[in-house]
Design brief:
With 328 residues, the chain is α/β, with parallel strands linked by helices. The protein has one domain: NADP-dependent oxidoreductase domain (TIM Barrel), CATH 3.20.20.100. Helix content is 35%, strand content 13%. It is built from eleven helices and twelve strands. The chain has an eight-stranded parallel β-barrel with strand order 3-4-5-8-9-10-11-12, surrounded by five helices. It has a two-stranded antiparallel sheet with strand order 1-2. Helix 2 links the parallel strand 4 and strand 5. Helix 4 crosses helix 5 and helix 8 packs across helix 9. The longest helix is centred in the C-terminal third of the chain and has 18 residues. The chain is globular and about 50 Å long.
């Protein structure tokens, strides 16, 4: 793992010290699938990953389903171009199974232990690594598999050495409790932003109390909090960009843009890009280890990398409104 001058935090009990921001590889999966962000140039994606590593970021978060395997392949390509000592930690996710002949259909949420094992092997191959640093269940299964069964498969993968740590994404406190009874949950990945702050109510306190690291996703509200969006920009999104049909970008758009403007005022006060202030908002909450921030081009990273060392004040949180970290 590459050394870094950026601020780091311990990811639960895993022994991994990760930078407060990590590279999110959802968008680089490209277009033509159910939750795409539109077309993407793979060369630009590789350059973005290399730029992130050069800037000190020491982890990448991807998933098998992003681009239906393509994001992992692009991450693997980027890793091959880096000296072994400079390679970042690699986090990925399984539990979503797709039909290659129907790419636009939503993937199935599968918890069958045999499927989990197959998916882990496929991810190892696409990434070109011997060990996945953090392997996560993307969503609760809806194929009838109890959480105890699919989490048991994750525990077995950790014990086998194929994965270093295991986590859950998009799971509730009740589900975390059930999984913890089977084996320790190393990490949780919930959505968390000034637009969607609900994780602060129960999930973050549970993780802090149980030694579970937290890496939050969509801290910039999928772009809405960066200052780069208005109604015209939303209307111009590609047809295969999932955001065109999201309430955040339709019925709630004006409210969310207003929130973004207040974050922009805080950013101006600190002399940082608005995207950095949006990400830093999440990092001030107890229990949050790091934030996953997406990028498709190197220049996008420069817009939020300063969040890694930005600490918002109580006055900043009050100005933005909504949830406030305890003690702020």
């Amino acid at each position: 793992m590459t050394d870094t001058t950026l601020e780091t935090a311990q990811l639960g009990r895993t022994g991994m010290a990760i930078t407060r921001v990590g590279f999110g590889a959802w968008a680089i999966g490209g277009g033509d699938w159910a939750f795409a962000w539109g077309p993407q140039d793979d060369d630009a994606s590789v350059q973005a990953i290399h730029h992130a590593v050069d800037a000190g970021i020491n982890w990448i978060d991807t998933a098998a389903v992003y681009g239906l395997g393509h994001s992992e392949e692009v991450v693997g390509r980027a890793l091959r171009d880096l000296p072994e000592g400079d390679r970042p930690l690699v986090f990925t996710k399984g539990g979503l199974v797709w039909d290659e002949s129907s790419r636009r259909e939503q993937p199935r949420r599968v918890g069958d232990p045999a499927s989990i094992r197959r998916e882990a092997e496929a991810s190892l191959k696409r990434l070109g690594v011997e060990t996945i640093d953090l392997y996560q269940m993307h969503w609760p299964a809806d194929d009838g598999t109890p959480i105890e069964d699919y989490w048991g498969a994750f525990v077995a993968l950790r014990e086998s050495g194929k994965v270093r740590a295991i986590g859950l994404s998009n799971h509730s406190v009740a589900e975390l409790e059930r999984a913890e009874a089977v084996g320790h949950v190393d990490a949780l990945q919930p959505p968390f932003s000034a637009i969607h702050p609900e994780a602060a109510d129960e999930l973050l306190p549970w993780c802090a109390a149980n030694g579970t690291g937290v890496i939050v996703y969509s801290p910039m509200g999928s772009g809405l909090l960066t200052g780069a969006f208005d109604a015209d920009r939303v209307a111009s999104l590609p047809d295969d960009d999932w955001r065109r049909n999201s309430p955040d970008f339709t019925t709630d758009l004006e409210q969310n843009l207003g929130l973004g403007r207040r974050i922009g005022e805080v950013a101006d006060a600190h002399g940082v890009p608005q995207a950095a202030a949006a990400v830093a908002w999440t990092l001030g909450f107890e229990g949050v280890t790091g934030a996953i921030v997406g990028a498709r081009r190197p220049d996008q990273i420069d817009g939020w990398i300063s969040a890694a060392g930005l600490h918002l004040t109580a006055e900043d949180y009050a100005r933005i409104g909504g949830r406030t970290p305890l003690g702020r």
